[in-house]
Amino acid sequence: MNYDLLIATSLLIVGFLYASVGHGGASGYLAVLSIFAVPVVVYKPMILVLNMLVAGIGFYQFYRAGYFKWKLLWPFLITSIPLAFIGSRVSLPEGNFNLLLGLALLLPVIRLLGFGPKEKQEQRELNLTTALLWGIVIGFLSGLLNIGGGIFLSPLLVLLAWANAKQAAAVSSLFIFFNSLAGLLGSSFTTYTISNSAYIWFAAALVGGTAGAYFGSQRFAQTTVRYLLTAVLGIASVKLIFFMQ
Known about the structure:
mainly alpha
């Protein structure tokens, strides 16, 4: 199979899977591109733009389905947006960046394997102070790692019983959009170049994300294809942690 087509197909699948749970997919796209050893200079700006588009589509679908609650989002945004901007301006040595990203990818792997927080029957009211503090942490990590932060926010909302799975997906999708925008504004991309292949990958991931957002919000529960996504993220995490230092 053509190299570009193989990458595009992988990004389409990852975009579908991530968007089905309300995520923009940045960590998944980074995982795929790291597996194929694509240089960062080719794709880094594209990841954040793509993250915004897919997350925006996901938000629209989950909002239409009635799962969005503004009160679960705004406290996180207040502190996360400025910290995402600051984090995006921090330059890490490539080895340290790869290590942190690899460790961050372990979180969705653990969640997808069923070891993360379970959805609780009784929900609690959001604690404002706790949400503001978590917004600082997640926002900074989002900017630093060039992701939207949904892989951190979704399990947190479920773990603290502030939201069920689909409410968390709706909130995370809009959270990802704004944090990706802050990271994009804070980054300097003068040293990055976009190849012709990157546009093909962009289109494939966007198609997958659009379809995933629709099916995730309207058609099915998030259980059927999670092991494929787990494998992709797991391989990328191991590669980043142990072989790219």
